[in-house]
Write a structure and sequence with these properties.
With 404 residues, the protein is an alpha/beta fold. It contains 15 helices and 14 strands. The protein has helices spanning 63-74, 110-118, 127-140, 160-163, 169-175, 184-198, 250-260, 264-273, 276-281, 287-295, 299-323, 333-338, 340-347, 359-362, 387-403, and strands at 2-8, 13-20, 26-35, 43-48, 54-57, 90-95, 106-107, 146-150, 206-211, 217-222, 225-229, 328-332, 369-370, 379-382. The strands form 2 sheets. An 8-stranded mixed β-sheet has the order 5-4-3-2-1-6-8-7, with helices on both faces. A 6-stranded mixed β-sheet has the order 11-10-9-12-14-13, sandwiched between helices. Strand 10 and strand 11 form a beta hairpin. It starts with a strand and ends with a helix. 42% of the residues are buried.
Protein backbone atom coordinates (compact mmCIF):
# COMPACT_ATOMS: atom_id res chain seq x y z
CA UNK A 1 0.00 0.00 0.00
CA UNK A 2 1.39 3.42 -1.03
CA UNK A 3 1.04 5.75 1.97
CA UNK A 4 1.94 9.42 2.24
CA UNK A 5 2.82 10.46 5.80
CA UNK A 6 2.39 14.15 6.60
CA UNK A 7 3.71 16.09 9.60
CA UNK A 8 2.53 19.71 9.48
CA UNK A 9 4.09 22.44 11.56
CA UNK A 10 3.03 26.06 11.73
CA UNK A 11 5.35 26.96 8.82
CA UNK A 12 6.48 23.59 7.46
CA UNK A 13 5.29 20.24 6.07
CA UNK A 14 7.51 17.19 6.54
CA UNK A 15 6.54 14.26 4.35
CA UNK A 16 7.51 10.68 3.62
CA UNK A 17 6.14 8.35 0.94
CA UNK A 18 6.27 4.65 1.84
CA UNK A 19 5.31 1.42 0.11
CA UNK A 20 3.99 -0.72 2.97
CA UNK A 21 3.94 -4.47 2.28
CA UNK A 22 3.26 -5.26 5.94
CA UNK A 23 4.27 -3.88 9.35
CA UNK A 24 7.89 -4.90 8.99
CA UNK A 25 8.41 -4.98 5.21
CA UNK A 26 8.35 -1.57 3.53
CA UNK A 27 10.26 0.75 1.24
CA UNK A 28 10.78 4.48 1.70
CA UNK A 29 10.12 5.84 -1.79
CA UNK A 30 10.81 9.52 -1.11
CA UNK A 31 10.86 12.10 1.69
CA UNK A 32 11.38 15.81 2.17
CA UNK A 33 10.07 19.04 3.63
CA UNK A 34 8.34 22.24 2.57
CA UNK A 35 9.67 25.07 4.73
CA UNK A 36 9.02 28.76 5.41
CA UNK A 37 5.34 28.51 4.50
CA UNK A 38 3.72 31.94 4.52
CA UNK A 39 7.06 33.74 4.31
CA UNK A 40 8.38 35.53 1.21
CA UNK A 41 11.06 32.90 0.47
CA UNK A 42 9.89 29.29 0.78
CA UNK A 43 11.97 26.14 0.35
CA UNK A 44 10.91 22.77 -1.03
CA UNK A 45 13.17 19.75 -0.45
CA UNK A 46 12.47 16.50 -2.27
CA UNK A 47 14.65 13.40 -1.83
CA UNK A 48 13.69 10.32 -3.88
CA UNK A 49 15.40 7.20 -2.55
CA UNK A 50 18.58 6.37 -4.45
CA UNK A 51 18.66 9.67 -6.30
CA UNK A 52 19.98 13.19 -5.70
CA UNK A 53 18.03 15.49 -3.39
CA UNK A 54 16.32 18.42 -5.12
CA UNK A 55 16.05 21.77 -3.34
CA UNK A 56 13.93 24.59 -4.75
CA UNK A 57 13.57 28.17 -3.54
CA UNK A 58 9.92 28.91 -4.22
CA UNK A 59 7.16 30.96 -2.53
CA UNK A 60 4.78 28.79 -0.49
CA UNK A 61 1.98 31.13 0.63
CA UNK A 62 -0.06 28.52 2.52
CA UNK A 63 -0.30 24.82 3.40
CA UNK A 64 -2.58 24.04 0.45
CA UNK A 65 0.08 25.32 -1.97
CA UNK A 66 2.69 23.42 0.02
CA UNK A 67 0.75 20.19 -0.42
CA UNK A 68 0.29 20.85 -4.13
CA UNK A 69 4.06 21.41 -4.54
CA UNK A 70 4.86 18.19 -2.67
CA UNK A 71 2.46 16.17 -4.80
CA UNK A 72 3.79 17.82 -7.96
CA UNK A 73 7.32 16.78 -6.96
CA UNK A 74 6.21 13.20 -6.33
CA UNK A 75 4.52 13.00 -9.75
CA UNK A 76 7.02 15.06 -11.80
CA UNK A 77 7.46 13.35 -15.22
CA UNK A 78 11.26 13.47 -14.98
CA UNK A 79 12.15 13.22 -11.28
CA UNK A 80 8.92 11.95 -9.70
CA UNK A 81 8.33 8.55 -8.13
CA UNK A 82 4.59 8.20 -8.85
CA UNK A 83 2.90 7.88 -12.23
CA UNK A 84 -0.13 9.79 -10.90
CA UNK A 85 -1.79 10.92 -7.67
CA UNK A 86 -4.08 7.89 -7.95
CA UNK A 87 -1.10 5.78 -6.83
CA UNK A 88 -1.48 7.21 -3.30
CA UNK A 89 -3.81 4.86 -1.42
CA UNK A 90 -3.94 6.55 2.00
CA UNK A 91 -2.56 9.57 3.88
CA UNK A 92 -1.42 9.53 7.51
CA UNK A 93 -1.11 12.68 9.62
CA UNK A 94 0.73 13.26 12.90
CA UNK A 95 -1.36 15.22 15.42
CA UNK A 96 0.31 16.56 18.57
CA UNK A 97 -2.76 16.93 20.79
CA UNK A 98 -5.85 14.71 20.88
CA UNK A 99 -6.78 15.38 24.49
CA UNK A 100 -8.41 12.44 26.21
CA UNK A 101 -10.69 11.86 23.22
CA UNK A 102 -8.37 9.42 21.46
CA UNK A 103 -6.40 6.43 22.69
CA UNK A 104 -5.30 5.36 19.21
CA UNK A 105 -5.21 6.32 15.55
CA UNK A 106 -8.53 6.95 13.75
CA UNK A 107 -9.99 7.62 10.33
CA UNK A 108 -10.70 11.31 9.73
CA UNK A 109 -14.34 12.39 9.78
CA UNK A 110 -16.17 15.57 10.82
CA UNK A 111 -16.32 14.52 14.50
CA UNK A 112 -12.57 13.85 14.59
CA UNK A 113 -11.85 17.22 12.99
CA UNK A 114 -14.05 18.99 15.57
CA UNK A 115 -12.19 17.33 18.44
CA UNK A 116 -8.78 18.18 16.98
CA UNK A 117 -9.96 21.79 16.68
CA UNK A 118 -11.20 21.73 20.30
CA UNK A 119 -7.72 20.60 21.40
CA UNK A 120 -6.08 23.51 19.59
CA UNK A 121 -6.25 25.51 22.82
CA UNK A 122 -4.03 22.83 24.41
CA UNK A 123 -1.46 22.94 21.57
CA UNK A 124 -1.85 26.33 19.86
CA UNK A 125 1.45 26.04 17.98
CA UNK A 126 0.65 22.63 16.51
CA UNK A 127 -3.01 21.60 16.12
CA UNK A 128 -4.11 24.51 13.89
CA UNK A 129 -1.25 23.64 11.52
CA UNK A 130 -2.25 19.96 11.55
CA UNK A 131 -5.80 20.93 10.59
CA UNK A 132 -4.49 23.06 7.73
CA UNK A 133 -2.59 20.03 6.50
CA UNK A 134 -5.61 17.73 6.66
CA UNK A 135 -7.88 20.21 4.90
CA UNK A 136 -5.25 20.90 2.25
CA UNK A 137 -4.83 17.19 1.55
CA UNK A 138 -8.60 16.65 1.47
CA UNK A 139 -8.86 19.40 -1.16
CA UNK A 140 -6.14 17.81 -3.31
CA UNK A 141 -7.06 14.12 -2.74
CA UNK A 142 -10.75 14.17 -1.74
CA UNK A 143 -11.36 10.42 -2.24
CA UNK A 144 -8.27 9.11 -0.43
CA UNK A 145 -8.72 7.98 3.21
CA UNK A 146 -7.01 10.23 5.77
CA UNK A 147 -5.83 8.77 9.10
CA UNK A 148 -4.61 10.69 12.16
CA UNK A 149 -2.12 9.45 14.76
CA UNK A 150 -1.95 11.33 18.07
CA UNK A 151 1.18 12.06 20.11
CA UNK A 152 -1.03 12.02 23.22
CA UNK A 153 -2.65 8.62 22.58
CA UNK A 154 0.13 6.48 24.08
CA UNK A 155 -0.07 8.46 27.33
CA UNK A 156 -3.78 7.72 27.86
CA UNK A 157 -2.79 4.76 30.08
CA UNK A 158 -1.42 7.13 32.75
CA UNK A 159 -3.31 6.71 36.04
CA UNK A 160 -5.38 9.67 37.26
CA UNK A 161 -2.93 10.44 40.08
CA UNK A 162 -0.20 10.92 37.47
CA UNK A 163 -2.15 13.12 35.05
CA UNK A 164 -4.19 15.27 37.44
CA UNK A 165 -3.10 18.70 38.66
CA UNK A 166 -3.90 19.88 42.18
CA UNK A 167 -6.53 22.30 40.85
CA UNK A 168 -10.25 22.35 41.70
CA UNK A 169 -11.66 19.19 40.13
CA UNK A 170 -14.32 21.18 38.26
CA UNK A 171 -11.60 22.65 36.00
CA UNK A 172 -10.78 19.16 34.81
CA UNK A 173 -14.45 18.32 34.29
CA UNK A 174 -15.31 21.58 32.52
CA UNK A 175 -12.11 22.56 30.72
CA UNK A 176 -10.22 19.22 30.51
CA UNK A 177 -7.19 20.69 32.30
CA UNK A 178 -4.86 17.75 33.01
CA UNK A 179 -1.51 16.37 31.89
CA UNK A 180 -1.53 14.87 28.39
CA UNK A 181 2.14 14.48 27.43
CA UNK A 182 3.57 14.46 23.91
CA UNK A 183 6.01 12.50 21.68
CA UNK A 184 3.93 9.40 22.45
CA UNK A 185 4.42 7.95 18.97
CA UNK A 186 8.19 8.14 19.41
CA UNK A 187 8.19 6.82 22.99
CA UNK A 188 6.06 3.83 22.00
CA UNK A 189 8.23 3.00 18.99
CA UNK A 190 11.64 3.20 20.68
CA UNK A 191 10.44 1.28 23.74
CA UNK A 192 9.41 -1.63 21.50
CA UNK A 193 12.60 -1.60 19.44
CA UNK A 194 14.75 -1.10 22.54
CA UNK A 195 13.14 -4.01 24.37
CA UNK A 196 13.87 -6.34 21.45
CA UNK A 197 17.46 -5.14 21.18
CA UNK A 198 18.01 -5.59 24.92
CA UNK A 199 16.38 -9.02 24.99
CA UNK A 200 13.51 -7.88 27.22
CA UNK A 201 9.87 -8.88 27.22
CA UNK A 202 8.09 -5.55 26.64
CA UNK A 203 5.03 -6.84 28.51
CA UNK A 204 7.16 -7.57 31.58
CA UNK A 205 9.61 -4.68 31.76
CA UNK A 206 10.37 -1.25 33.19
CA UNK A 207 11.67 1.13 30.52
CA UNK A 208 12.44 4.85 30.59
CA UNK A 209 12.56 6.55 27.19
CA UNK A 210 14.22 9.93 26.62
CA UNK A 211 13.12 11.79 23.48
CA UNK A 212 15.60 14.67 23.37
CA UNK A 213 15.53 17.39 20.74
CA UNK A 214 14.28 20.94 20.28
CA UNK A 215 11.34 19.62 22.27
CA UNK A 216 12.19 17.00 24.89
CA UNK A 217 10.22 14.61 27.05
CA UNK A 218 10.84 11.53 29.17
CA UNK A 219 8.41 8.65 29.60
CA UNK A 220 8.07 5.88 32.18
CA UNK A 221 6.81 2.69 30.51
CA UNK A 222 5.84 -0.30 32.64
CA UNK A 223 4.87 -3.55 30.92
CA UNK A 224 4.51 -1.73 27.62
CA UNK A 225 2.20 1.02 28.91
CA UNK A 226 2.92 4.63 29.78
CA UNK A 227 2.58 5.31 33.51
CA UNK A 228 4.01 8.85 33.52
CA UNK A 229 5.65 11.41 31.25
CA UNK A 230 7.35 14.75 31.73
CA UNK A 231 5.28 16.98 29.43
CA UNK A 232 1.92 18.11 30.75
CA UNK A 233 -1.18 20.02 29.65
CA UNK A 234 0.93 21.27 26.76
CA UNK A 235 4.45 20.57 25.43
CA UNK A 236 5.70 23.46 27.60
CA UNK A 237 5.94 21.47 30.84
CA UNK A 238 8.92 19.33 31.78
CA UNK A 239 12.63 19.93 31.24
CA UNK A 240 14.31 22.93 29.66
CA UNK A 241 14.09 22.75 25.85
CA UNK A 242 15.21 24.66 22.78
CA UNK A 243 12.94 27.68 23.32
CA UNK A 244 10.54 26.38 26.01
CA UNK A 245 11.00 27.17 29.67
CA UNK A 246 9.99 23.76 31.06
CA UNK A 247 8.82 23.55 34.68
CA UNK A 248 8.27 26.93 36.34
CA UNK A 249 6.39 28.18 39.38
CA UNK A 250 3.08 29.61 38.14
CA UNK A 251 3.51 32.54 40.54
CA UNK A 252 6.74 33.46 38.73
CA UNK A 253 4.72 33.75 35.52
CA UNK A 254 2.14 36.03 37.18
CA UNK A 255 4.93 38.08 38.77
CA UNK A 256 6.68 38.59 35.41
CA UNK A 257 3.42 39.49 33.66
CA UNK A 258 2.95 42.29 36.18
CA UNK A 259 6.57 43.45 36.11
CA UNK A 260 6.83 43.41 32.32
CA UNK A 261 3.32 44.71 31.73
CA UNK A 262 2.60 42.00 29.16
CA UNK A 263 -0.60 40.17 28.22
CA UNK A 264 -1.08 36.43 28.78
CA UNK A 265 -0.54 35.86 25.04
CA UNK A 266 2.70 37.85 25.12
CA UNK A 267 3.81 35.89 28.20
CA UNK A 268 3.03 32.67 26.35
CA UNK A 269 5.37 33.78 23.56
CA UNK A 270 8.14 34.40 26.11
CA UNK A 271 7.64 30.99 27.73
CA UNK A 272 7.32 29.03 24.46
CA UNK A 273 9.57 30.86 22.01
CA UNK A 274 12.09 32.99 23.93
CA UNK A 275 13.09 30.79 26.85
CA UNK A 276 14.87 27.45 27.22
CA UNK A 277 18.35 27.11 25.69
CA UNK A 278 17.81 30.37 23.81
CA UNK A 279 16.76 32.32 26.90
CA UNK A 280 19.43 31.02 29.27
CA UNK A 281 22.31 31.14 26.79
CA UNK A 282 21.14 34.40 25.20
CA UNK A 283 22.61 32.99 22.01
CA UNK A 284 20.94 29.96 20.42
CA UNK A 285 18.25 27.30 20.79
CA UNK A 286 20.46 24.74 19.01
CA UNK A 287 22.25 22.26 21.28
CA UNK A 288 25.06 21.82 18.74
CA UNK A 289 25.84 25.53 18.72
CA UNK A 290 25.75 25.64 22.51
CA UNK A 291 28.15 22.68 22.68
CA UNK A 292 30.61 24.62 20.55
CA UNK A 293 30.20 27.76 22.65
CA UNK A 294 30.54 25.79 25.89
CA UNK A 295 33.74 24.16 24.62
CA UNK A 296 35.09 27.67 24.07
CA UNK A 297 34.26 28.67 27.64
CA UNK A 298 30.91 30.48 27.30
CA UNK A 299 29.42 30.32 30.85
CA UNK A 300 25.80 30.79 29.77
CA UNK A 301 26.03 28.04 27.15
CA UNK A 302 27.54 25.77 29.83
CA UNK A 303 24.72 26.66 32.22
CA UNK A 304 21.99 25.87 29.67
CA UNK A 305 23.52 22.47 28.87
CA UNK A 306 24.17 21.61 32.52
CA UNK A 307 20.56 22.41 33.39
CA UNK A 308 19.39 20.23 30.50
CA UNK A 309 21.54 17.33 31.70
CA UNK A 310 20.36 17.82 35.28
CA UNK A 311 16.70 17.90 34.24
CA UNK A 312 17.13 14.60 32.36
CA UNK A 313 18.85 12.95 35.34
CA UNK A 314 16.17 14.21 37.73
CA UNK A 315 13.31 12.94 35.57
CA UNK A 316 14.90 9.52 35.04
CA UNK A 317 15.57 9.22 38.77
CA UNK A 318 11.98 10.06 39.65
CA UNK A 319 10.68 7.40 37.26
CA UNK A 320 13.06 4.78 38.66
CA UNK A 321 11.46 5.53 42.03
CA UNK A 322 7.90 5.53 40.65
CA UNK A 323 8.34 2.14 38.95
CA UNK A 324 10.48 0.70 41.77
CA UNK A 325 13.32 0.01 39.35
CA UNK A 326 14.28 0.13 35.68
CA UNK A 327 15.48 -2.45 33.16
CA UNK A 328 16.33 -0.17 30.22
CA UNK A 329 16.97 3.51 29.56
CA UNK A 330 16.56 4.59 25.92
CA UNK A 331 17.86 7.73 24.20
CA UNK A 332 16.29 9.01 20.97
CA UNK A 333 15.49 12.24 19.10
CA UNK A 334 17.91 14.64 17.42
CA UNK A 335 19.97 15.28 20.57
CA UNK A 336 19.48 11.87 22.15
CA UNK A 337 20.69 10.06 19.03
CA UNK A 338 23.68 12.26 18.26
CA UNK A 339 25.11 13.64 21.51
CA UNK A 340 27.25 10.89 23.04
CA UNK A 341 28.70 13.18 25.69
CA UNK A 342 25.24 14.02 27.01
CA UNK A 343 24.31 10.32 27.15
CA UNK A 344 27.50 9.53 29.06
CA UNK A 345 26.98 12.36 31.55
CA UNK A 346 23.43 11.23 32.23
CA UNK A 347 24.15 7.52 32.54
CA UNK A 348 27.15 7.91 34.84
CA UNK A 349 24.75 9.19 37.49
CA UNK A 350 23.06 5.78 37.65
CA UNK A 351 26.07 3.69 38.58
CA UNK A 352 24.35 3.11 41.95
CA UNK A 353 21.86 0.94 40.05
CA UNK A 354 24.66 -1.21 38.69
CA UNK A 355 24.58 0.54 35.30
CA UNK A 356 27.93 0.45 33.49
CA UNK A 357 28.49 2.57 30.37
CA UNK A 358 30.21 0.96 27.40
CA UNK A 359 32.22 4.00 26.34
CA UNK A 360 33.16 2.60 22.93
CA UNK A 361 29.58 1.67 22.05
CA UNK A 362 28.29 5.01 23.32
CA UNK A 363 30.08 7.00 20.62
CA UNK A 364 27.77 5.46 18.01
CA UNK A 365 25.15 7.58 16.26
CA UNK A 366 22.64 7.01 13.52
CA UNK A 367 22.15 3.32 14.31
CA UNK A 368 20.50 1.33 17.10
CA UNK A 369 22.94 0.16 19.76
CA UNK A 370 23.20 -1.08 23.33
CA UNK A 371 25.54 1.39 25.06
CA UNK A 372 26.10 -0.44 28.36
CA UNK A 373 28.47 -3.31 29.13
CA UNK A 374 27.44 -6.96 29.06
CA UNK A 375 27.54 -7.17 32.88
CA UNK A 376 25.55 -3.95 33.45
CA UNK A 377 22.54 -4.62 35.71
CA UNK A 378 20.55 -1.89 33.93
CA UNK A 379 20.81 -1.61 30.15
CA UNK A 380 20.84 1.58 28.10
CA UNK A 381 20.31 1.95 24.38
CA UNK A 382 20.48 4.41 21.53
CA UNK A 383 17.42 3.88 19.31
CA UNK A 384 16.69 5.91 16.17
CA UNK A 385 13.06 6.94 16.31
CA UNK A 386 10.77 6.48 13.31
CA UNK A 387 7.44 8.15 13.95
CA UNK A 388 6.63 8.08 10.24
CA UNK A 389 6.76 4.29 10.24
CA UNK A 390 4.35 4.09 13.19
CA UNK A 391 1.96 6.45 11.41
CA UNK A 392 2.27 4.46 8.16
CA UNK A 393 1.54 1.17 9.95
CA UNK A 394 -1.57 2.56 11.66
CA UNK A 395 -2.72 4.23 8.44
CA UNK A 396 -2.35 0.97 6.51
CA UNK A 397 -4.39 -1.04 9.02
CA UNK A 398 -7.18 1.55 9.34
CA UNK A 399 -7.38 2.16 5.59
CA UNK A 400 -7.62 -1.59 4.91
CA UNK A 401 -10.34 -1.95 7.54
CA UNK A 402 -12.22 0.90 5.91
CA UNK A 403 -12.23 -1.00 2.60
CA UNK A 404 -14.03 -3.99 4.14
Amino acid sequence: MIILVINCGSSSIKYQLLDMKNDDVFDIIAKGIAEKIGLPAGILQYAPTGRDKIVKDIPIPDHKVGMELILAALTDPETGVLSSLEDIEAVGHRIVQGGDFFSGSVLVDDDVLEKIAFCSDFAPLHNPAHLLGIHAMQAVLPNVPQVVTFDTAFHQTMPAYAYMYGLPYQYYEKYRVRRYGAHGTSHQFVAGVGAKLAGLDLENSKIITCHLGAGSSICAIQNGKCVDTSMGFSPLEGMIMGTRVGNIDANAVIYLENKLGVTPDEMSTILNRKSGFLGVSEYSSDCRELDERANNGDPKAKLALKKFTYDIIKNIGSYVAAMNGVDLIVFTGGIGEHNSRLRRRVLENFSYLGLKVDYEANVAFGEDAIITTADSKVKAALICTNEELVIARDTMHIALQNQD
